[in-house]
Write a structure and sequence with these properties.
12 helices, alpha+beta, single chain, about 450 residues, binds aspartyl-adenosine-5'-monophosphate, elongated
Length: about 450
């Protein structure tokens, strides 16, 4: 067998099916498969290769009486990429479908020993992310991200939302000064967008009633946590003509319900197999006012500005699970001190603390979304900018959007990676993106 006859190998690829498609093939038919070798076992006159493509693994049985000489197997190592022509048989192996090989060609041989396996430490796996992702448990994360975004879009298009594409090079930081990447823009200062906040609101001022965007957002967060990336995919919604932040929460609740339902319908078995979790579909998401949340989580978990710690989020998540049997909860009516200038103020707390018409959505004890009704009245918005100690000159263009008549509006930002992390109960958000970016990582 001349396994190095590349032309024959390439020729075979014309008829290649994927391993998953064996499902539909009759026994004793000839098939062509290709993929990575993930295991080789030699027992005298017979060798077994486990071959992997994106759709699964299959056992390739290589018999001496077919090939005469099995010396060529020595050329193979882990993750050699081969193409095989053979007969699909009703094998005796329980775990794998079986193909008895008739021709095998090498497509590409590893130039070196595999640098990682599934037990390698996290940073090393990330250095070799493409190999890491050949593991079906890992690639499921990427597939689910794709489908989650598809279902989200599906819901939004079915409900008359318009998808917008706003600039990522901008002149003003929307979400606060410290966490913004600065760049040189033809000798002027510019920033990478932390969110599409200003432009999704502009779209509402332009007369679009319901808009969304799914795009990169950048945060210069120096923190090394399991929740933060410096670049993430932000799913943003903005809705006009609303009567309060409750209208916005209603939409978010429907999206989460729809998306989780679709994911469960289509991926339940794989999620169970690899992550041993059941996908929860929320019928009704409980809403708890921040002033009550303070009582539930205790003083130690309240930050100086009225925000809550990640430990506080976990405690609340457990509380909601026990009390409401729900994996989701809205924390509503946040204190003004913990929210950005563009949130609309609401009724004060019992202790007099000023609140905003805002919410966070927690999924299994982690914030996955933040939203609010926005302040759309020019004069009040200007006052709020000053009240936050910001310079109105820096918000000149944003303020202009509200100067010539504006509807009421509200919306939210939603972290896709955090959502997937919580859905699968993954340790680190960096596992939930194709290639993570953090303060130390710019490669691969
Ligand atoms: P916020 O800053 O809370 O709100 O971001 C919205 C959501 O985006 C996700 N997220 C992140 N995910 C990974 N790494 C990060 N560093 C990171 N930062 C945020 C979270 C978060 O809930 N403009 C507002 C939204 C709005 O009011 O419409 C905003 O950006 O899941």
């Amino acid at each position: 067998m001349d396994i190095y006859n590349y032309n024959k190998g390439f020729e075979l690829l014309k008829n290649r099916i994927n391993i998953g498609e064996l499902e539909k093939i009759e026994y004793n038919k000839e098939v062509v498969l290709a993929g990575w070798i993930i295991n080789i076992k030699n027992i005298g006159n017979i060798s077994f290769i486990i071959l992997r493509d994106q759709t699964g693994d299959v056992q390739i049985t290589i018999k001496k009486d077919i090939f005469n000489d099995l010396e060529f197997i020595k050329e193979f190592s882990l993750h050699t990429f081969i193409v095989v022509k053979g007969k699909y048989v009703k094998g005796i192996a329980k775990k794998y479908k079986e193909v008895v090989a008739e021709e095998i060609y090498l497509i590409s041989e590893p130039a070196d020993r595999l640098p990682i396996d599934e037990n390698s430490y996290f940073e090393k796996r990330m250095n070799y992310r493409w190999i890491d992702l050949r593991d079906p448990k890992k690639s499921l994360i990427i597939k689910l991200t794709s489908y989650a975004v598809k279902y989200i879009r599906e819901y939004l298009y079915n409900n008359n939302f318009i998808e917008i594409f706003s600039p990522k090079i901008i002149s003003t930081a929307s979400e606060g000064g410290a966490e913004v990447f600065e760049l040189n823009y033809f000798n002027r200062k510019a920033y990478l967008a932390q969110s599409p906040q200003f432009y999704k609101q502009m779209a509402i001022c332009s007369g679009f009633e319901k808009v969304f965007e799914i795009a990169p957002a950048f945060r210069a967060e120096p923190s090394f946590t399991s929740r933060h990336l410096t670049e993430f995919t932000s799913f943003d919604v903005e809705i006009g003509y609303i009567s309060s932040h409750y209208d916005v929460m209603k939409v978010l609740e429907e999206i989460v319900k729809y998306t989780n339902k679709k994911i469960k319908e289509n991926f339940e078995d794989e999620i169970k197999k690899y992550y041993n979790v059941d996908v929860f579909i929320p019928e009704n998401i409980p809403k708890i006012k921040m002033e009550e949340v303070y009582e539930i989580i205790g003083k130690n978990n309240i930050k100086e500005n009225g925000d809550i710690t990640s430990e506080g989020e976990k405690i609340l998540g457990d509380y909601v699970k026990k009390t409401y049997d729900n994996e989701f909860v809205f924390i509503i009516d946040w204190p003004w001190t913990a929210r950005p200038f563009y949130h609309m103020k609401g009724e004060p707390m019992k202790n007099g603390m000023i609140t905003t018409k805002s919410f966070d959505l927690l999924y299994n004890g982690l914030e996955i979304s933040t939203g609010s009704q926005r302040e759309h009245r020019y004069k009040i918005l200007l006052e709020q900018i000053k009240e936050k100690g910001l310079n109105p000159d820096n918000f000149k263009y944003y303020l202009e959007f509200f100067k010539y008549g504006a509807p009421t509006m509200g919306g939210f930002g939603f972290g896709i990676a955090r959502y997937i992390k919580q859905l699968l109960n993954i340790e680190n958000v960096k596992e939930a993106v194709l290639i993570p970016r953090d303060p130390n990582r710019l490669e691969p």
